[in-house]
């Protein structure tokens, strides 16, 4: 078989171009003028020449020898042929299109009954003028003549289908028009009490201006000289579909999506992937780029610019809005049209897709306890679509969380195995694209599942109605009715960003400065690399190990207990939820139980602010203890816990508690000296910081609190990494409670759990409990004249580390005359009404007196609770701390 030459290929290509133009000329063109047809053929001539330019890529050796690239070019070449099956406009004029809003109404008004004498005169002297200014002159026909029906001359549209209208309806006193077909506007009766006349006269809504003066008798000359607003709207409605579907914007989008966009992409691939360096390829690539740029600008100008026709229509629509308001004031019922209903449904679907997650609807009375495998009635029941989508999103979040933790290890592994290549990068991008597509699909599926769920539709309707409402009562009513994700909720209280707090700089004592050694040359060289590595370790896994409550998996496992805890607080204790925006930008989920109006006890005037542990939440944490004692309680979840945003850490911890304290003082109107801080476990850091920053608080209660997090962190890490752990902790997670507590001059006491397995270096051994070190350092700092010799310090450690039997024996030995000790402390408080530490108490005491007070003071600051770390604290152990000395 003879091979084709270059000339043969060129002839085939040129013939193909002329076949396209000839076929477009012969195919049905619709109602188009000769001038428009000539412009259309010129457009297709330009398009055909651009298409043939794509075939010049086959002249490049790199493209011709690549089978995938050949297939891609041919597929794109075939794809662009589909645009010739569309009837693209050849005009370059501006096509006006707009969307209707809820002002698109029409009102049908019935005329008054015609008097009998007027009917007689009309029969004797027929006239072509209407009997009312509101009636339109119509040509009458005989009784047996049917009205002429004329189809609408407009393009078919899904949203505005082609219908027929009556040109000359029958006008006869014995015949009544049963139906008048209309394309868009619903019709309502303005005066339903008036009987239906011979003919249904139409009145535009603009005629409502005359209802206040002369409703039925208007000057004919004035009516004929003024253009009806409703008639203008009708004309616009008839042409809207054709203008919108035949607008130039659609021809531009078709050309860009089927030709210029794919051509530009394939030429970029040829340049950057296959290293094509020919002049023609560069020229056509730049040409496609300019076309994309200019056509995008053209689309933008079409969408944004407004012509005179649009402005006139906007003025008419504004008039219609005012008239519809007047109609509503006159008691006229106006129906919303189809477009408004469609808009509302699409808006509802959009809100269901991107709306917050609904957890439950709070019951009116506290629910009865049920097993975990039973679903309470107030828990929101998801359908299959929403449940499946939430499962997929949870799996994706969990995968991303694991990837965030392991990415340094994965990066090193891939580098050593040689996987960091261009091809693997393309595979990774494809995988990311697949994940994005899957996420979009399940997001849409979740939205559809919510859309068909009546419970969620009821919630989302109330949510968006209240979301922008500044009324506190409306917001609290919604929060007391529904339990939902607070990610979409506006904060109730915002701290200015200029008030952001910084990590406190703890002063170094002279002894610590003397004991410090000069860093070696090697330590100086590796100082900053070590800090950088420590920063990576803290953000990858260190923070999550220190605050496991922020892990997505743990929150998912504890979802049901958290929901039950919130239900108990909201329903039984009438708690109120608030969202507070901190100075560093985190939203803190808080809950407040107000007991100030309670008549059962006077404790309600005292506010207890709780600080939870590293896996604690206010829903099931330490709030229950002060609530049972009748105090007003304010609980909060640290950043990354529950519905609070952000990540936990030392800096976010102090900014969060500062925002909570400001809200309690400024919005809840509690005095500082009526506030008690109650902290458990790692919450002792934020509590100690609050005590230092707000020295006038009434007291501080520390439950299972450690002195310093460094020994606990070093216990969990290998011994060879001890120095690295110390440097990392001191720079990024320095939770040093003892140094903060030394700066607090108010009363406090420590609850020590004798079987604590978390803050004890040896689980269950009370002598290794880090709370002991906290007590040793603070007492030694506050009372330097009591604990000023080795014998007293030894007695201090002996009493703190003793078991219950030994402590009773030592206390009976040294504090048998407790009344005398109380009298001495009372006398000192009278002489020094304002507490300040270190104090001079015991400056003149003998050794025996110092030993007696050494044991007595420990008993005032320490309360032992025989339990493990996570056991709820009984209310008998909670009290308001008093000043000891």
UniProtKB/TrEMBL annotation:
PANTHER family: TMEM26 PROTEIN. Keywords: Membrane, Transmembrane, Transmembrane helix. The lineage of its organism: Eukaryota, Metazoa, Spiralia, Gnathifera, Rotifera. Pfam families: ABHD16_N, Abhydrolase_1, Tmem26. InterPro entries: AB_hydrolase_1, AB_hydrolase_fold, ABHD16_N, Transmembrane_26. Residues 127-142 have a biased composition (Low complexity). This is Uncharacterized protein. Residues 348-485 form the Phosphatidylserine Lipase ABHD16 N-terminal domain. It comes from Adineta ricciae (Rotifer).
